[in-house]
Amino acid sequence: MNLTPSASSVVEGPSAPVTVPRHVAIIMDGNGRWAAKRSLPRVAGHRAGAEAVRRTMQAAVDNGVEVLTLYAFSSENWRRSEDEVSDLKGLMRFYLERELGTLQKEKVRLKLIGEPAAFGNELYDRLQKAVAETASNDRLTLVIALNYGSQAELAAAARALAQGARDGTVDPDTIDIGAIENLLHTRDLPPLDLLIRTSGEVRLSNFLLWQAAYAELHFVDTLWPDFDEAAFAAALAEFSRRQRRFGGR
Ligand code: FPP
């Protein structure tokens, strides 16, 4: 992944031309509050959140977005109760099984970032299988961040470069932005154009810190389970109105 301006596609609409972001990422926040408002257990919020994933994936396909990256489980989420972690794992397994057909039908390629092996062999093998089975799909790349943390990702890149310098395979003088990007989990993805966070929280929470350097940020009060096609379209419309300068004028 590089940070040079992304060639977002321009679609001529009935009035002004619309710029569609190539790569959209979402911090899906607010499942717990959605459930609490209804006096439901947290898992009900996550279940409703999985439906929002389905709607949003379809909206991304329909709008011609190339990559949709979703923060499904952060490296800090292990601090949640054992029950909640197990519910989230169960939901991912269920979603994978139920949605694999849709991924194939809509030509969606699944990709993982983070350290998903920590979820145990059973879920990890299923995830890897779905990644392999959808590898040649070319309409949308759905990237699920699982056990992902941006600081750990950057530390691993620094470690790899330092080891290379020690072994003599990396000349420290040649370490540039590209050298770091080539070691990030997002290295084969287009630059991040738009980062959305739901539920009214206004922070990045260790998600794609490097990649968001020139991304447009969009914060909405909507709780993730209520996020839908209209909310996604509103975010794209807002993106289209932004003037991106990438540090220039
Ligand atoms: C944040 O809400 C949400 C999560 C930590 C998990 C996201 C998971 C899903 C949307 C479901 C399954 C995912 C896939 C890819 C099928 P929160 O629990 O932090 O909400 P709160 O801040 O209101 O408590």
From TrEMBL:
It comes from Sphingomonas humi. Its EC number is 2.5.1.-. Keywords: Magnesium, Metal-binding, Transferase. Pfam families: Prenyltransf. NCBIfam families: uppS. This is Isoprenyl transferase. The keyword Magnesium applies. It is an enzyme of class 2 (transferase). Mg(2+) binds at residues 29, 216. Homodimer. It comes from the Bacteria. Its cofactor is Mg(2+). Substrate binds at residues 30-34, 42, 46, 74-76, 78, 80, 197, 203-205. Binds 2 magnesium ions per subunit. Belongs to the UPP synthase family. The active site is at 29, 77 (proton acceptor).
